[in-house]
Design the sequence.
DNA sequence: CCCGTTTCTCTTGATATCAAGAGATATGCT
DNA sequence: AGCATATCTCTTGATATCAAGAGAAACGGG
């Protein structure tokens, strides 16, 4: 078994024999796998009429539970985009009929963004398709190895969990 | 030990009990870890006066070995950007004195992009710093576990290695 | 040898993002 | 109470990217 990174590591070893590039064996694979996943997710979402950024926002609302309603501020912190970007995203999602803006009764500066019935259907269908795809990608890997992999990745990820707010997918 | 994804999985389980979202345990961690890595790499490169995209291009040239020279076409396939983007990148790298364009003696349509001495110094320093950071990130993990992790990731990555051309970082 | 096709780089136009800031309301300290 | 500061959303201007295509040179079959 051989992948992109084996070639990468070989080339660096030849050109930079002074450096021990062994960390790339793990971390370069993480980055490259993530790039492939991004492309695949885009393809899956496209089949369900959603852009990745649309899924991100709708999934955040869906995951928050009834009444599927959050402020733009919370949404932008959860999805790690700027306020200008979130305004633009909500505009387009509202135009598409997937969310609706309501004034916030508790804060006259603010609005609340609520998932529409169609928005919920779309994000539910897209998530199901995503999980199906991801399951097929892991298909060959036995449960014990999946758990080992998840555990090892968690040990790398958890120290990076800063005072950051929320989640994404 | 607990990370972002544990919370994510919990929330989905509550809202979508019909779905088995177990694949997220692995693949969501891959994506989120990659996002953290991107941010950290950006910080490391900034200390060495490089943007991530600058490092991508310069590293590609550096890794190709002497005379550190490639066509724009090969570079754009290697870094997975469009030709317009690569033209723009080479323009800016040339203005910064990190690469130089030369006519290709073997093909009058083409040019060759060559790493300058300063370009090489910069990319070498940035790579050293990157590896140092990545080593610190893996710091706690014993070599045997690193290898297990690399092996598991390779088994996911290698089927995705399509008839794609080259490499990146 | 010639002409259609491919390959190569660069240009153009559209778009999503970010950084910075504006305007309105809420909050808290004295 | 009152005033300064913080918070919230949206606007503006700049930028990097992509998709599509133009122009020039190379290639290859008849």
Sequence:
């Amino acid at each position: 078994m051989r992948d992109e990174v084996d070639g990468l590591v070989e080339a660096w070893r030849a050109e930079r024999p002074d450096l021990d590039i062994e960390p790339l064996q793990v971390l370069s694979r993480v980055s490259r796998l993530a790039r492939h996943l991004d492309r695949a997710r885009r393809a899956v979402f496209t089949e369900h009429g959603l852009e990745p950024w649309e899924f991100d926002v709708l999934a955040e609302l869906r995951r928050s539970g009834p009444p599927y309603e959050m402020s733009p501020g919370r949404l932008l912190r959860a999805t790690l985009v700027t306020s200008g970007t979130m305004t633009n995203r909500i505009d387009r999602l509202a135009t598409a009929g997937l969310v609706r803006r309501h004034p916030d009764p508790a804060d006259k500066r603010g609005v609340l963004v609520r998932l529409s019935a169609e928005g919920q259907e779309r994000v539910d269908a897209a998530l199901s398709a995503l999980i199906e795809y991801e399951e097929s990608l892991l298909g060959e890997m036995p449960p014990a190895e999946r758990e080992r992999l998840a555990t090892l990745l968690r040990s790398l990820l958890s120290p990076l969990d800063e005072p950051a707010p929320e989640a994404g997918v």
Observations:
- Chain B is about 65% helix and 5% strand.
